[in-house]
Amino acid sequence: MSTPQQYHSYIEACVEAMNACNISYISNLKEYDLEKLCDCIRINRDCAEICSFTAQALSQGSIFAAEIAEVCAKACEACIDECQKHPQTHCQECVEACRRCAQMCRELMEMKVPV
Amino acid sequence: MSTPQQYHSYIEACVEAMNACNISYISNLKEYDLEKLCDCIRINRDCAEICSFTAQALSQGSIFAAEIAEVCAKACEACIDECQKHPQTHCQECVEACRRCAQMCRELMEMKVPV
Amino acid sequence: MSTPQQYHSYIEACVEAMNACNISYISNLKEYDLEKLCDCIRINRDCAEICSFTAQALSQGSIFAAEIAEVCAKACEACIDECQKHPQTHCQECVEACRRCAQMCRELMEMKVPV
Amino acid sequence: MSTPQQYHSYIEACVEAMNACNISYISNLKEYDLEKLCDCIRINRDCAEICSFTAQALSQGSIFAAEIAEVCAKACEACIDECQKHPQTHCQECVEACRRCAQMCRELMEMKVPV
């Protein structure tokens, strides 16, 4: 079983992606062209919650850490695909944070974690 | 995208498994032979939170519903394996609720859900 | 300490409000007059997550059940205030579910729960 | 409405308290004198989840940030009271992280946040 200490940088990457997704979510809801951003709003919230749950699961040493990290990597990748369609700064910053989180999650999935 | 209405019975199964896992968690912490129940305590909490997150994800129509349901099915199956080792009523009731939740999650994974 | 069994109808009311808020959230994002619904979208998600967390906290017998129920009651009441401004069926159904959840939470807050 | 940017140091304090509570939770379950630690195990998990939820709520700019922060401050203070009874290093580290989180939450409650 990995400990929260070992997972520290992974938890941090999840929290940063959660924050970037939430900033993008809030900012999108204030944009002018709202109808073009509905998919982005939904996936931002969806991804933010998955990142938050992943951080929590890693922190408590869930035995399903690898499986949850895989869902988180997919959510971040889908969020990147959507955010890349939009020129707004908050979307571009969300892409960066999600890219790092996805990489970390994929790395974690391949760790040989003694259970 | 499936709607929370379509997911109603799945959400219900997740909430029932969450409750059964939490009852088992709380009850285990009051048992006499506590040191034999540590693994059960941990997996009960782990599974309870995954069930709770799955209910929420289904309820908000997450586009990762199938992936999250798969993690939930695995968590319930691991919880069943552990609870079956213990004779306590709360462990047996947890087995029943997790079995139903795991079945529902596996069914959901195979649904052809229009996204 | 109350048990999840005692909390059963409270957990149910929270889950129903979570579902109604999420249905309203998803439906609002598909409406034509999106810019009039931004506040409703935000409070629907906010309330949905608070209801979900409250269900989970009650289920695990949190010693902060009364405090969390108070936040949940306030969130439901704010959600009612916003949803009442909109004629859509999903907003009206959200009002009903939040009204019941707020009542249950206020009832729970006054319970003399032996800790 | 405060933004996740403004909340950054508050979110960080919540995540650190979540991690410290989870480390204490996991470590307690491996201790020899388990029966003396049951209350500590329960309150560690309870507090960890409240900290996690608070981080998420602040991150998404919840309009109930102050109310949720108040619950989080109380949870951290209760966790401090319990952990102070135990000599283990993980309990002492939990006290430190919870003290900082409680202070931050109390500070946040007094912020005049424009909604």
Secondary-structure map with pairings?
Four copies of one chain form a homotetramer.
Chain A: H1 8-28, H2 38-59, H3 65-83, H4 89-110
Protein name (chains A, B, C, D): Four-helix bundle copper-binding protein
InterPro entries (chains A, B, C, D): Csp_YhjQ (IPR005560), YHJQ-like (IPR044543)
Task: Please provide a brief summary of the model.
Four copies of one chain form a homotetramer. Chain A is mainly alpha-helical and 115 residues long.
What structural keywords apply?
homotetramer, 115 residues, mainly alpha, Substrate Binding Domain Of Dnak, Chain:A, Domain 2, 73% helix, 0% strand
Describe this structure in words.
4 copies of one chain form a homotetramer. The first copy, chain A, is built from 4 helices and no strands. With 115 residues, chain A is mostly helical. Chain A has a single domain, classed as Substrate Binding Domain Of Dnak, Chain:A, Domain 2, CATH 1.20.1270. In chain A, helix 3 runs antiparallel to helix 4. Chains in contact: A-B, A-C, A-D, B-C, B-D, C-D. Chains A and D meet through helix 1 and helix 2 of A and helix 1 and helix 2 of D.
